Amino acid sequence: MASFTVTENIYTNYVLVITDVGEECDDESALYYLAQMAAAKQDLFVEVVCVGGKMDASTRLERCESVVGLKETKNFRMRPLEGLPKVMPVVATRRFVLQIGPVTNEVKVEDLVVRLGSYNYVLLGGLGTTNSSDGAAREFAEGMVKHAFSSLVIATKVDGVTRIPLFTAQTAGNFNTSICSEIMRVGFKNTLGRAPPSLTFLNQLVGPGGANYETAKSITDGILGVGTFEALPVTRSAWKAARAYSSSYTEEQVGGMARMLCAFHRLFGVPVDQVWCSSSPEFNEKVLECGVLTDMFRDFILRMREGWWIGMTPAYDLVAAWVVIMMCYSAEVIHHYFDNLGGNLYGLKVDKCGSELINKIMVPEVQVSMFDRWLGDGVGSSS
Predict the structure, then answer these.
(1) Same domain, 133 and 178
(2) What are phi and psi of 181, to 5 degrees?
(3) Same-domain pairing of 22 and 154
(4) Residue 372 falls within a domain, yes or no?
(5) What is the 3-state secondary structure (H, E, C) of 63-110?
(6) Which position among 26, 167, 171, 257 has the lowest Cβ density within 10 Å, counted as fewest Cβ atoms?
């Protein structure tokens, strides 16, 4: 007979978080936020479940503790997704599923639906547009939408433009030192590193309006002055390198990437004809301490500290975590921040996409930001 665990307390809200923590810093920031919310609201139960994939679930769980600093409490639990349906669900008035990581073969939709009963579903990114709902992961996401009592899908782009706030050096200070350092590393990786050519659905990232393009523009204009990025002359070497990196790029995407290469050369001394894949080991934390990109990384950190308001990398999962908490406690407020784009698809309003939204999410008025302390710690420096 199967062994079940039952929580004696009856909670108002139960949130099941499906995450691939360890892929990007926005997972870490989202989990940090949800842990804070669970600590502040004793009627909230948060259960974090880790998928497999590039790293196994146990490694992801270890990262939850080592980088995010998570610890289990009465109303905050962590476990691998595989085998989850064998565990009795928490007794709660309302149940929510937040998906910020892809599910392929860890669990079947039908088994999870039976475990949950009635639930509300929040998915980051339109179906088929992000790693969580594209390819082999799409079937699970579509099944979760189909069986949900209600569903809300957060669009990361609207009319080709990213509508998610970017982490800055200042907003990174709302998190612990490990996450601050990770935001800087990922900011650097996402600035210089390109998606593998095989992931053609990510080609749009390097074209105008794409997250990579807009991040490079934000950094360049923040450091050198508004309008500098799009006024940069694009060299033949940069254009040739961009075209050689992926044969599936459109002309617009080739041009966008070439402009980015010219900007990186001017800002950080990166060779204009050098394209780095985001999966390159040179971006790994330990390698960055003493590797071919070390000096460029140090220049990046200095630039970002000087321009502490400059956006680096999108806070995708943090926004999604914030949305599910709004659904728990003040669902009507969602319409103040989001436009309904049709059906269950919502996108942040244009005037709500600034980095100050991250401060609004993370820092209550009575809380002092960790920014000043973080800058004094020399986060991200190998010295």
Answers:
(1) no
(2) -65, -40
(3) yes
(4) no
(5) HHHHCCCCCCECCEEEEECCCHHHCCCCCEEEEEEEEECCCCCCCCHH
(6) 26
Query: With bands split at pLDDT 50, 70 and 90, how would you rate the model's confidence at 2?
Result: very low
Number of residues assigned to the chain:
383
Which range marks the domain in which residue 149 is found?
11-161+314-352
For residue 3, the 8-state DSSP code is -
* Phi-psi label, residue 341: left if phi above 0, alpha if psi -120 to 50, beta otherwise: alpha
Give phi and psi for 283, each to the nearest 5. Answer: -90, -5
Lowest mean pLDDT among 10-14, 52-56, 151-155, 242-246: 52-56
Structure tokens at 261: 């290469």
- Token couple for 10: 């009856």
Tokens standing for residue 268: 């950080």
How far is 254 from 241, CA to CA, in rounded Å?
A: 9
> Does residue 296 sit in the same domain as residue 319?
no
DSSP β-ladder status, 150-154 and 120-124: parallel
